[in-house]
Design a protein that fits this description.
Layout (H helix, E strand, L loop, with lengths): L2 H7 L10 E7 L2 E12 L5 E6 L6 E6 L18 E15 L3 E7 L6 E9 L11 E9 L6 E3 L9 E5 L15 E6 L7 E9 L19 E3 L4 E6 L2 E11 L12 E5 L8 E7 L2
Parallel strand pairs: 1-11, 10-11
Antiparallel strand pairs: 1-2, 2-3, 2-9, 3-5, 4-5, 4-17, 5-6, 6-7, 8-12, 8-16, 12-15, 13-15, 14-15, 16-17
């Protein structure tokens, strides 16, 4: 059995929750980009996971340290230098309403689950008040060479479908229970990266381009879509998917690039940040 199949088998367990799937459409070609799982636990808590697509094989080197960010002003993000020779397969991030960030992966020797980075403290559900909080983020290259190919949804597709596009493959439809298929149309995006922030907030609040987004007024970002809101009844909380692009020069990308996964710590001094790249 190939390593790809052995890794994907880890996710087909009895407690597996089918993910919200993020796909890239490059003309007639389709690619898997990212999986986001939301799971309501038995103790009325919630967990959120951000993972490379489990049908593919990704590899990452372990960072040498966690990230510390200033409390205000402009942020200059410098990725932690990786530790040579220490790598893992398909590492992923998770936030839990108990106030913990996890980063786990699979051993590159025997594919056993392992801790990739030590836990960090994060916000708890009771920390939510009138302000929304970013809990997890992903920075994804707008570059099909970075991802594994897949097939497009059929014309009679009945699931939830949301495409960021000027000419969507199918009409947008978010009227069903269950996972959402989110499609990024490369034709309408800048040829750099697109960022996903997962924003936790009160179910009575909406985050929108006009208000309630947790960014400074001078943030240099290009809004590409209104947030997609998921509401949970027990616990009573909402999670919004918000996509945007950094403002900068358009660059022609011809090489395979890395995805950045970013877990936001409570005090911005123990953020979990690492890169994963398609293998081989």
């Amino acid at each position: 059995m190939s390593n790809i199949h052995r890794v994907s088998d880890q996710f087909y367990k009895t407690n597996h929750v089918w993910p919200h799937r993020i796909l890239l459409r490059d003309q007639k070609n389709w690619f898997r980009v990212l999986d986001v799982q939301t799971k309501v636990e038995k103790n009325h808590s919630i967990s959120v996971y951000v993972k490379p697509p489990f049908e593919g094989l990704y590899i990452a080197e372990k960072p040498s340290h966690k990230l510390s960010l200033p409390k205000d002003g402009f942020v200059d993000i410098k990725l932690p230098i990786s530790t040579n020779g220490t790598s893992t397969l398909n590492p992923y991030l998770s936030w839990h309403s108990s106030g913990k960030l996890h980063a786990n992966g699979f051993s590159d020797i025997n594919l056993k689950k392992e801790v990739f980075l030590k836990d960090s403290e994060a916000i708890k559900l009771e920390d939510l008040s009138t302000s929304p909080h970013i809990i997890l983020s992903a920075v994804m290259p707008v570059n099909s060479l970075s991802y594994y190919p897949t097939t497009p949804p059929p014309s009679n597709f009945e699931g939830n479908y949301f495409e960021i596009s000027n000419n969507p493959h199918l009409p947008n439809k978010l009227d069903r229970q269950g996972n959402i298929n989110i499609i990024l149309d490369r034709a309408c995006l800048k040829q750099t990266h697109i960022v996903l922030d997962l924003i936790l907030h009160s179910p009575d609040m909406d985050v929108s381009i006009e208000e309630n987004l947790p960014y400074p007024n001078n943030a240099e970002i290009l809004f590409v879509s209104h947030p997609i809101k998921l509401t949970f009844s027990d616990p009573k909380v909402a999670l919004s998917f918000f996509f945007y692009q950094p403002i900068g020069k358009s660059i022609k990308i011809v090489q395979k690039e890395k995805i950045i996964l970013w877990g936001r710590s409570k005090n911005q001094d123990q953020d979990l940040l690492f890169q994963v790249v398609k293998f081989p």
